Batch of 4 targets.
Target 1
Amino acid sequence: QMRAMRYSLDTINIAFPDCDIDVYATTWFNYDAQDRAILYDNYNVKSFDALKNKDLNKYAQFEQQVIHSGFNSLERDSVHNWAPVPVWNLTRIELMAQNSYNKIKETDNYDYIIRSRFDVKYLQNLVPHLSTKFILTSEDIGGSAPWDHWKGIRQVFDGFAVGTNEMMSHYYEFPDWVAKYYFNEHTEVLKAERTLGWFLYKKRLNLNH
């Protein structure tokens, strides 16, 4: 969603100062036209797609499995927080990110590809941390907390990543890969951060949190 973008958009220049930035954006169909105008006024937008749910139902059968498996595991009719609730539309969210990447994957014009949610607020210069040898990612909300692991693997925030085109081409395979393999290895409720961390580990992609 773009609704919080106006409060964080200016911090992109903090994270990537003196960089030429092109934007390939994908959002839900019911966006605010003013938000789109703000994005265009501030950055060189090369592509902007607004997708409906019907455009993102590629893995509807997997979603049904996620819903049935997740809610059937609940031991009561209501919950007090989001923790036991499955992220049934994870593949739709990741397919939107993949849609943006598909617009640029054939070009060699970029040193780095950045995956960023509209509401990410940057606090420091990240350029010194960029490398052609790993994907720069962020940990889940728990940061370096000991519990912020799943099956011994660090959880990864699904709203930010930076890497070369080659490395990010593997990163953006996430929705296709998880729909095919998740229930072959897991019975747990589907969640975004822990599943992304597990996927990147299984893909043997070098990460720097």
Note: The radius of gyration is 17 Å.
Target 2
Amino acid sequence: HYAGQYSCAQSDVVAGLSDVYMGFFFITSARQVVSDMTTPLFPNSGLVIVGKKPWTWEEFAAQGKTACVPSGTALATFVIDNLKPTGVAVELYSGTSEMLAKVESGVCDAFVEDLALAEQWVSLNCDKLLAVGEPLSHGISELAFGVNTDKTHITEALNYWINYLRDCNDADASSKCNQGWPDGSAYNWQSLYEKYRGSGCPTPDYREG
């Protein structure tokens, strides 16, 4: 089902051309059939709208706004099946440059992404003056790595470190998870995300006029 829909990702892993797709992929039942999915990295973080203002899903749908979503993905399928009927118009794109062009030209009012990726993207593109809206309270939101089904030892190794970093106490200075970090701090998965996602964007002024 996913063959040809991803470049060097799901289809290559299923075909045995790659061992792992090292990206944030939503865990779905269809993907679990064709490849191993690791323990979720950021569970229940939710889908958000990224646009010129911090939209809520309710107001975005009520105003019939258009959301850019990446074509051929589980995210697109979910938005089309579950959010389009609520009033959200959908525009597909096939790459970041196309998505930005559509948002900046007004073809799309915003784009849809998982909260973790959305916050990272906005922090790395402060000049775009985009804001992250409120997360959707339901739907696909668990992200993981995908592994070729013949490489179960890789899945086990990734799961070990994912679980270790999820459970490690970053508030404990004596914790093993601080070993090797040059700043002498302890980190778990969440605090690492907060450390490296960046927070250098000035707070936009969304007041009209």
Note: Strands lie at 20-26, 36-37, 47-51, 66-70, 89-93, 110-114, 131-132, 143-147.
Target 3
Amino acid sequence: AQVKGDQAERGANRILELLGKAAGSEAASLGSALAALAAQVKGDQAERGANRILELLGKATRSEAARLGSALAALAAQVKGDQAERLANSILELLGKATGFEAARLGEALAALAAQVKGDQAERGANRILELLGKATRSEAARLGSALAALAAQVKGDQAERLANSILELLGKATGFEAARLGEALAALAAQVKGDQAERGANRILEL
């Protein structure tokens, strides 16, 4: 992580070359190495690495997915503009089919892109996370909840109103850690929600 400049660029290129052929725990280790260089890598390198990790994530074991997911989030945070939009679309596509810990890791990566994503992308991601939250384990729900709050903060206007209504509907049935995560997401929307939505949310949280 102390490598800078040209050395970092050369190192990242070499890791990307190896990552293109690697699988399993080797790929997870290379992903971690690339993530350690994340602050130094160029946008196109970050995008290439993130896309390769997305390919690997679906075939990974839980421990490999944990390492790949952390690497993906670190790289996603370095991607900007059109690259961020493309990466967000790729993540959203996979998130539509993913479940369990894979979905939680994809949610985290999308959250790392939150400041870069468009309102409709943020809304799509948030809605998919809402679908997943009810079936998640406690640790998955923690990750999904953090991602939901990060995405909710990027949603405005009508999108925010629709998302708040969806959260309130789920909050009416949720308990325990799921309800706590939904409450956090609603709080992230606080500046956007209407008075009656805020009141309903507050009343439900008080009941829990």
Note: DSSP finds eleven helices and no strands in the chain.
Target 4
Amino acid sequence: KIHALSPISVSNRIFSTQKVKEALSELPPRVTHITFLIADWLQFYNRANKHSDTTDLGSIIRDYKERNEDFVNRHRWITKFLNSFPNVLQASYEIVGMEHYFDALYAHTFRNVNILKSVDRQFEKDVNAAAKLFHSKGNSVENNLAISLSEQYILEEIALNIRIRVKGMLSEEYYMGRYHVPMIKIYDNCYSANVRDLLGGGNSTRANL
């Protein structure tokens, strides 16, 4: 019996009804429970970059907090999809947003991941390269602010993934997008701290990315 994680992007166009249907149909029978994680708050980095010409960051934060419906919209879409295709998913499931995991353990993990970037040269290089690769898609001119925000996006994504999978002992993950290099390498113990160290204790788990 396997409890797996399935991150759901709120902006990636690959998450269409047909493609998600095909992907869920291919889940192995060993997966008996799946957590759909709606990565809603990661979109704030994109919003900040989009409105980087303003000096009033406070207004951007307030506007996003008041108008953010990413979780509600994605939750509604997933629920409607699963109700429309009741036989496509054999496992039990839950749908959660990022705030579900915003606790002290997550803060502890996020801090450790940020420190790792400061002290581990290879991790820093990999995060920077992944951020530049992400930014280069559709952009011919390098933008330092956009790259910096992308780096923070990656660090938060890694910290959240560790918080969920290592603490919850979720040994498998199914994501329809493409994993960035530092996410893969951090589970392969390629840096100066492993995922259990970065969580700050608890049970380790073998990743199947």
Note: Residues 10 and 73 are 9 Å apart (CA to CA).
